[in-house]
Amino acid sequence: MARSITVGTIEDIILQGMLHGHVLRSPVAAGTLVRINTPKLTSAYTLITAQDIPGSLFLNNLSPPIPVLAASQIHYIGEPVGLLVGPDRNKLEELASETEVIVEETEAYFDTAIFGSDRILAKKTVQNKNIDAIFKKNTFALEAVYNTVFQEHWYPECHGAVASYSYDKMLIRTATQWPFHVRQAVASVLGVSENDILVETTELGIHLDGKIWYPSHISCLAALATYICKKPVKILLNRLEDMQYSPKRPASQFVIRTATGKDGELLAIEGRPIVNMGAFGPFAGEFINRLSLGMLGSYRCPQIRIEGYAISSNLPPAGPFAGFGFSQANFAIESHIWSITDTLQLNPLEWRKKNALCKGDNLLTGIPIRDSVPSEALLDTVADMSDFNRKWSAYELLSRYHRSLDKVPLDTPLRGIGISLGYQGNGLLFEGSDKGTFGIEVTLEKDGSLLIKSSALGSNDETKSIWIAIAGEILGIETSQIKFAPLSTDQVPDSGPSCLSRNITIITKLIQRACETIRKQRFREPLPITVRRFFRPTKAMKDGQPFGMLSWGAAVVEVEIEPITLTPIVRGVWLTIDGGKILSETIASRAIKLSAVHALQWASSSPLYYVNGKITPDSLESYSIQLQNNPPPISVEFNWNENRDPKGIGELPFTLIPGAFAQAVSQAIGRPIRSLPITPYTIEEALLKREKQP
Amino acid sequence: MTIPFILNGEDVVAQCSVDKRLVDILRDTFKLTGTRADCRSGVCGACSVIFNGRLVPSCLIPAFKVKDGEVITIEGFKQTIEYQDIILGFNQSGAQPCQFCETSIILTIEALLSHNLRPEPQDIVAAFVDIQCRCLDPNQLLDIIKTISEIRQKRLYGRSA
Fold it and tell me: pTM higher than 0.90 for the full model?
């Protein structure tokens, strides 16, 4: 097991004379901040507002910039407007509860039903004049609306940061996926050089890509408090605060219209994805690009028209979550394809095999896919594993019989099975393309040990174990001789954000290349030998090919609807994955199974709602990240091939499972399911609709 | 208020207000930071302790309830042979709970196995329903607990199931 290179957890960091920070938040969703009335504060307690910020008032390394503390305009309930700092957390809570934040309220917008151009954060348009002619022709056209809801990350430790002075530098300790982003943000807010800021990473735990930018915000608040009070300051959000105000997976809506030929092949897709990014909406452009691309699924379609919008609202900013847009989009298109195959009475497996993308087909940018696409092999394998054809035929017969009756008989469990195909794009999309000079450094020391320096940090030790195994194999070094430099910005180079499988696809490759270079130099040059390697976007990426590489997968989900409670119980999940070179089958299989559980939880648990712009406190008790029934058996198989590059695969279950799950429930009840999560209420509603409109 | 109780096998006394939460007494007074204060609503399970033989969320136990009771925290439990069974089971399964979930998972397993040495899958699911953990696959957890159960049966009775 790799040794820990982080500095423990934020909660456990206790420093001499440390103060605590309590964030004062806006009670309303939109308006103008008038004043903050605190009770009389003793000399030990300090109120910090936007006027006290010495440098930039905004997190400048985000687009659009986000205010560190609102100075005037309020954008959402819970927006930080001030910071109370003092030695006793309980006293701070008491003071905060007595503090009045007075805001002149204006009209707030929470949803995306109606929006003006001023609320459009990012837009993705693919125009196509020929498409109307296709829809006018005598083809089978189908239009439907699909919805997905917010999802909470439920981090093992809530967002927080500890700031203190270490000699002449400011030291920030926080759980972040990108320590150099924190450094840049803090330096800009304090108006100092980046070299005056040190960032050390604390234990991250399973972060599901939710700790990319928000830790920078909390760190800026802690750093500001330390700068003003000249003492160490810790800010650690409590669980309810974290749930109510930290970024979530955003809610999205898709309007999809398709025209299909006589064999069910897609002739045209017209789509309008809309995502509610909350206030500011960092990464809105990336999101809408991913939704637009994901909405086309993994299937060939000659005519495409897209009009996608990322919309701002007066909800807390939404942010990345594992799957990053693809999970919502794939659910929509896979559910839509269920409606097509169901109406045309086609076998969904055969339809997918016939219409799946192939090598040479275009993705949204018009650049052809260069690698082979193993969709047929993946679909065949997953169908064999799950006995899909037999089960689908049996359940289909039953479903058709039930549909011929006035009412679905609920004396026995209803069953259904669904299949989906999808891919995971590794790395950032289109304009993202990893613009920075991100890299790693590897040193073969005089004593023969190897030191790897990288700011990339896995949510567990498994990625590090893979890096150790690779370096050990290339250089023939004992794994105990391979060490990692502590995760501090003065000791490691910026390796970019640890998200979207970059650790596997980019950092692993860089470490591999650095070790190979050391192997060549080893007996020619004196020790120590240091090799640095930097990531450069490939030619294909510069040409517009989205993502560095694609990993593919297929999934089957079998469901039984419990007849009394209408609870959808998952009987089994089968996945086949083409992840390139699998570095450790055990670790990969374990990661896929865990992601599959998280994906199922999102697809089937109680939804998380904002009520008038705020998540209600009782959501803390009603929202669970656990599966409420016995965990289903999950089988994973890998598609072994000659591919020499490892690819990211951890997000594939988020892309594949919700769509397959929705199809399985749709088949079981004989009605299309068009929103996530699928709960007993959703099923009851669908059955009632069926009775009204047979 | 003066509150005498047994903490990890030792007689201790805490001076605090009657309504102070047990989790705060453990962390602030006794510096037992393995018990984590997270949701403070009894939802997440991170503050689990064994109180009078039962697994409880210590954030919901007020100080006056602790008087004359017995509390075992993860630090105390780590000194026992039962803990060794659990760690051996995890090692044999090749999995580890993360630093954040360690306390709740280990103490929940102990609470489960101390009452039912051969739990059925549904018993395990029921025992873990109040633990908010993202780090272990529930199916894997079933296998781990089965392994631990066998290790313990072998230690107690000289044979496994």
Answer: yes
